[in-house]
Amino acid sequence: MTTTTELVRQRLTSQQLSTSSCGSVAQVVQHMGAMQAQDYDMAKWAVGVRLPGSTEQLVEEAMTRGDVLRTHLLRPTWHLVAASDIYWLLDLTAPHVKRLMAGRNRDLGLTEDVLTKSNTLIEQALADHTYLTREELMSRLQLGGINTSDLRASHLMMHAELTGLVCNGPRLPNERGVKQPTYALLRERVPIRQTLSRDEALTKLAKRYFTSHGPASLKDFVWWSGLSVTDARRAIEDAHSLLTSVTVEHQLYWLAQSAGNVPERPDQVQFLPAFDEFMVSYCDRTASLAPEFTRQTITSNGIFKPVIIVNGQVVGSWKRTRTLNSITIDLTLFYALSTDLTEQIHEAANAYRTYAGVEKDWRLRQQS
């Protein structure tokens, strides 16, 4: 591997985008280590695009069962994580995230006493497999004398997640029949606790990241994992026997030793969701994103838009508008493409429509 084109081709394979070896929702998420997931519907598609033949309902069912959890770890944002990985990943990464949150918690008056009391009230409210929305939990905390206004509610719940108390529960219908996210006690959702020593966890995380995201640099791993540079170097060193390195344009990259040569394939088109790992998990994205298209893809406040990639290169963006029984997909191409590629893009849009379970009432519109 000596060129950027080869690097991108390998990333597509590592990320299960050019071909997938995963047979279930949990296997996809476990392979990826963790998947950024602040946009719930897009996070489900991030799994679906890596699991051929899957549907949104299939992914939702795995979330409902608790095969995959949505919680805060790695960085101060939502992630999907396999239930079997939740405890050791939290043990490894939550202390760093809590340190990042500490200053803002103080500004909000969320002292250790307040956070401890909040966790106690939340634990009591969710006991015996009770599932409550954040609003319902905040009502309980308010009754218990805890101020949940402003951003306190988000910080209180994130603290409960980072301490291993709660995670997502199933989405349940409200009085209008609209499904709402709920919280559950983590120990009830995942009763078997898998723990690792810190050294074991560092090694495992490095292996997971470079297997699923490689080729990637040390800097990429630091950004994605939230680890310090020292811990990230140590993790790579400890996983050295499982990894190999390549140099592309004077930059050192790591990937799994098990990664073989990736053959050239016919043109491949994928519709990637907002905040997809293919875009968000690297510091330097120029291998797949031309600098002139950065502003059209990543907003100034760090929002990663859903993108269309052809052979790993961003060629446009897309947006879906969904109602109960219909879907509209709007395409914005950044430059003119061949007729064949345009047709493949339309076919990829149709694949998303099939995944979403909309059979008849759907529209595809290309913006000028």
Protein described:
The protein is an alpha+beta fold and 368 residues long. It has a domain at 269-367. Helices cover 43% and strands 18% of the residues. The protein has 15 helices and 14 strands. The strands form 5 sheets. The protein has a 5-stranded mixed β-sheet with strand order 10-11-12-13-14. Helix 1 (4-14) crosses helix 10 (198-213) and helix 5 (86-107) packs across helix 10. The longest helix has 22 residues, at 86-107. The radius of gyration is 21 Å and the shape is globular. The relative contact order is 0.13. The mean pLDDT is 94.
Q: What overall geometry do the principal axes of the alpha carbons give? A: globular
End-to-end separation in angstroms reads 38 Å
Helix content: 40-55%
> What is the radius of gyration?
21 Å
Strand order of the largest sheet: 10-11-12-13-14
In DSSP terms (H or I, runs of 4 or more residues), the helix count works out at 15
Average predicted confidence as pLDDT: 94
In a few lines, what is going on in this structure?
The chain has 368 residues and is an alpha+beta fold.
Key attributes of the depicted protein:
about 375 residues; alpha+beta; five-stranded mixed β-sheet; 15 helices; about 45% helix
Topology, element by element:
Layout: H1 4-14, H2 25-32, E1 35-36, H3 40-48, H4 56-65, E2 68-72, E3 78-82, H5 86-107, H6 112-126, H7 134-143, H8 152-162, E4 166-168, E5 172-173, E6 179-180, E7 183-185, H9 186-189, H10 198-213, H11 218-225, H12 229-238, E8 243-248, E9 251-256, E10 269-272, H13 277-280, H14 294-297, E11 307-310, E12 313-322, E13 327-333, H15 339-356, E14 362-367
Parallel strand pairs: 13-14
Antiparallel strand pairs: 1-3, 2-3, 4-7, 5-6, 8-9, 10-11, 11-12, 12-13
